[in-house]
Write a structure and sequence with these properties.
27% of the residues lie in helices and 31% in strands. By secondary structure, it is α+β, with helices and mostly antiparallel strands. The protein has 4 domains: 92 residues; 63 residues, Beta Barrel (OB fold (Dihydrolipoamide Acetyltransferase, E2P)); 77 residues; 155 residues, FomD-like (FomD barrel-like fold, Beta Barrel), CATH 2.40.380.10. β13, α4 and β14 form a beta-alpha-beta unit. The longest helix is centred in the middle third of the chain and has 23 residues.
């Protein structure tokens, strides 16, 4: 059975889904222990599930078979759940070369085959300069929709939740203070595990709740993985060589949740705990909103068994955290292959509590508008109308004199209006209405290609096509 450690805003729902998939959740947090009517063991985890920093999805890292098991339990969650395997996994070891060491607190490094990483200057022993080569390990991978680069360090470590082995430390330490830390360090001498030379042991907070047997199993597992990594690297040159991948002790996958996925997670969570309408949608919007949701659910259990089927309180969330009229908002144009493209920022010129919003952007000159094939000129204004939860949105382009140059309707996964960004995943197929009133569906071939490549499911492609056809009929009428 795959053992999984889960953390972040999706923990309750994911824990329930994993239990239904015959996975064993271990090292559970105190709130999770309170919510579920069963016990959780403090054991080593085969897989770690963590919410991404932007709260838009989750990272799944660990044993390849275990990662596959977890992904399979989540990828069918809803029509707008997207999952990919990353090419820069947590714990992967690369030979890297510094590309850019000018300014900031770190350098961009080449990991080979078009991959990039970020090395903090403080993690290097000496001055970092362009052309320097290092043997690095991925300490924190980056989701494909994020502009951040994976964080790499010129050292090796093996993590497991209960303990971490590191070539950057010596002896035994604990991520705690006082008597409990001293106790963990002292108990290490009772464990009959032969840790390879050059590796230091650091016990994590979860180890404070672990039995001696579990601590021994965790340390033995980490030691076995450290030796396996050493054996793999022993077959490579001793000094850093040309940029490239040397070892992948773990696999990392990413799940990106859309609006329907978040509401599906609400339904799963509702089976375990009182859940307000739009629980995950609100928590994904803002850290302060996350705290407010916890407070509301803690003091008010009046949502009832059908709470997950109620309406998401968009007006209340938007009034408290945004967006509302006058705000500046970015358009986050997601792609099914994991990329996130910014279409720029605009001003919210109109807003209503039903989840409707108008965004205006001033355009710069140069080039032509996609599909409409009309010139893009300085002074043009793009007027975009969004509605929370809708599978499409229109953008009308107007010249400086107010004349309409055309309307482009983007077909996408259900729109989410977060405080600083509009979020959705583009589904390729779109509808245009030219200035002369003619209407056409465009880019259907791109959707077909993406479906053939496995980037878009058959079900999602059918939905996108039906939405495009419905929009075409409406615009033609």
């Amino acid at each position: 059975m795959t053992t999984v450690r889960v953390r972040g805003i999706y923990t309750t729902a994911v824990t329930q889904l994993l239990a239904e998939a015959d996975c064993e959740v271990v090292q559970a947090s105190e709130p999770i222990r309170d919510r579920f009517d069963r016990s959780f063991d403090t054991l080593p985890a085969d897989v770690s599930v963590e919410t991404t920093r932007d709260r838009q999805g989750i990272e799944i890292s660990g044993d390849p078979d275990g990662v596959e098991t977890v992904v399979s339990s989540l990828e069918t969650l809803a029509i707008d759940a997207f999952c990919w395997t990353g090419d820069v996994a947590r714990g992967a070891v690369f030979d890297a070369e510094v590309l850019d060491a000018e300014g900031g607190s770190g350098a961009v490094v080449d990991l080979g085959e078009g991959r990039r990483g970020y090395l903090n200057y403080d993690d290097a022993d000496d001055y970092v300069d362009e052309g320097n080569r290092y043997r690095v390990q991925v300490h924190e991978p980056a989701p494909p929709w994020d502009d951040d680069l994976p964080l790499v360090r010129p050292t090796l470590e093996i993590r497991g939740g209960l303990c971490t082995l590191s070539r950057d430390q010596t002896g035994v330490s604990a991520a705690l203070r006082g008597e409990r830390a001293e106790e963990l360090v002292g108990m290490t001498t009772l464990l009959s595990v032969d840790v390879p030379g050059g590796w230091g042991i650091r016990w994590q907070r979860a180890a404070a709740d672990a039995a001696l047997e579990a601590m021994g199993a965790a340390l033995e597992d980490a030691t076995d993985r450290a030796r396996l990594l050493e054996d793999t690297l022993a077959e490579t040159p001793a000094e850093p060589n040309d940029p490239g991948l040397l070892a992948t002790p773990e696999t990392t996958a990413w799940c990106w949740f859309g609006r329907e996925s978040r509401f599906a997670l609400d339904g799963v969570r509702q089976r375990v705990e009182t859940t307000m309408p739009g629980h995950h949608r609100a928590k994904a919007a803002d850290r302060a909103a996350s705290a407010a949701v916890d407070f509301a659910e803690a003091v008010c259990e009046s949502f009832g068994d059908d709470g997950a089927d109620s309406e998401f309180p968009f007006a209340a969330v938007a009034r408290q955290f945004g967006p509302t009229a006058g705000d500046r908002l970015e358009i986050g144009h997601g792609k099914p292959d994991g990329r996130l493209i910014s279409l720029g920022r605009g001003e919210v010129t109109d807003w209503d509590p039903e989840g409707k919003m108008t965004l205006e952007r001033s355009m710069t000159g140069g080039g032509r508008y996609d599909a409409l094939d009309v010139p893009r000129e300085t002074g043009d204004v793009a007027v975009t109308k969004f509605r929370e939860g809708r599978w499409w949105y229109p953008t009308t382009y107007r010249a400086a004199d107010g004349t309409t140059k055309g309307t482009y309707v983007n077909v996408c996964t259900p729109v989410e209006l977060f405080p600083d960004c509009v979020r959705y995943v583009d589904l390729y197929i779109d509808v245009i209405r030219s200035a002369d009133g003619s209407v056409a569906v465009v880019d259907a071939a791109e959707l077909a290609d993406a479906t053939d490549e496995g980037l878009v499911s058959e079900e999602l492609a059918e939905k996108a096509t039906s939405v495009a056809e419905a929009v075409e009929r409406a615009l033609s009428g």
